[in-house]
Design a protein that fits this description.
By secondary structure, the protein is mainly alpha-helical. It has a domain of 82 residues. It has 7 helices and no strands. The longest helix has 24 residues. It starts with a helix and ends with a helix. This is LiaI-LiaF-like transmembrane region domain-containing protein. Keywords: Membrane, Transmembrane, Transmembrane helix. Pfam families: LiaI-LiaF-like_TM1.
Length: 162
């Protein structure tokens, strides 16, 4: 077995072993980390270790998503400034695509697309305020944005040819 192929399972075994050992030891300091988001983060860190350490750059995307989601679920109820909004999840996915793009050169379009969508969702109230002079037209467009996104997806899948 090559060194690169041992990174992911090795990190999973070490991470889960440490998690369950600390849980059995009943150390008060770590009590709040004995939850399923911690397991997400362990698997995500193993993917990131495989991605960067094993030069399997495709593993960066799932690693970032799993670590990001796990971190989000740990932090969302502890920090007032942390947004509890679907735009946060889309932002984490965008970060995954952009980090993968940094190593592979693939995924820039998806990363920028998800980043733009997350910014619009996270700052919707401010965006509407910026376009306040347009008035009701923004509200009307906001009602139809899912249909616009579906249309762009259909265009990219079926109509656009290289």
């Amino acid at each position: 077995m090559k060194q690169q192929q041992r990174i992911f399972p090795g990190m999973i075994l070490i991470g889960f072993g440490a998690y369950f050992y600390l849980q059995q030891a009943n150390i008060v300091l770590f009590q709040e980390f004995f939850t399923w988001p911690t397991l997400l983060m362990i698997v995500g860190l193993a993917f990131l270790g495989q991605g960067y350490g094993g030069r399997d750059y495709e593993a960066i995307l799932p690693g970032t998503i799993l670590v990001g989601f796990g971190l989000h679920f740990h932090v969302v109820n502890k920090l007032e400034i942390w947004p509890d909004h679907m735009g946060t999840f889309i932002l984490i996915i965008a970060l995954g695509f952009l980090l993968r793009y940094q190593k592979t050169g693939a995924g820039l379009f998806q990363g920028v697309l998800f980043l733009t969508l997350s910014i619009i969702l996270l700052f919707y109230d401010k965006v509407v305020g910026w376009f306040g002079f347009i008035g009701g037209n923004v509200e009307t467009a906001w009602e139809f944005w899912p249909i616009i996104i579906i249309g762009i997806g259909v265009y990219l899948l079926f109509i656009k040819k290289k």
